[in-house]
């Protein structure tokens, strides 16, 4: 039996929520964002629909990969917020990602890990790297214990 996902989507800076229904969970986070923006554009009779997004869970603020399927990263009725003013790219330091593609390394620093990074780790082609700041935090935690 296929599960239907109902995902409340908020667009940053807009006071209303859009309930997006996913028929089987195979829809991507990118699709969710596009549908919400299309509904906003139709409702407010604007022709501008932005297709560059950053999506976050509302509960914990964690970033969602736009390529992930809804059933893999969200629960039914789990709300997300999208920001259409920013998009992730190599020039934007505010959205660093954990994966260093050139070195095949995923850096665990406690701030930038996404579900797509975990998938890369699952392939066995990437190694885990802990930056100096993470080791410092581990040492401090050991001292407390």
TrEMBL record:
Pfam families linked to this entry: Par3_HAL_N_term
Superkingdom per UniProt: Eukaryota
All residue ranges annotated as the Par3/HAL N-terminal domain in the record: 9-80
InterPro entries: Par3/HAL_N
Entry protein name: Par3/HAL N-terminal domain-containing protein
Gene source species: Rotaria socialis
């Amino acid at each position: 039996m296929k599960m239907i996902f109902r995902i409340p989507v908020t667009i940053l800076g807009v006071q209303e929520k859009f309930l997006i229904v996913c028929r089987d969970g195979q829809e991507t986070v990118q699709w969710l964002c596009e549908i919400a923006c299309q509904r906003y554009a139709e409702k407010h009779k604007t022709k501008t629909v932005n297709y560059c997004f950053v999506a976050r869970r509302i509960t914990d603020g964690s970033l969602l990969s736009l390529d992930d399927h809804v059933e893999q990263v969200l629960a039914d009725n789990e709300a997300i917020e999208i920001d259409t003013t920013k998009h992730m790219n190599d020039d934007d330091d505010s959205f660093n990602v954990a994966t260093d593609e050139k070195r095949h390394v995923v850096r665990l620093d406690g701030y930038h890990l996404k579900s797509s990074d975990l998938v890369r780790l699952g392939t066995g082609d990437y190694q885990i790297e802990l930056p100096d700041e993470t080791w410092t935090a581990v040492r401090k935690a050991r001292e407390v214990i």
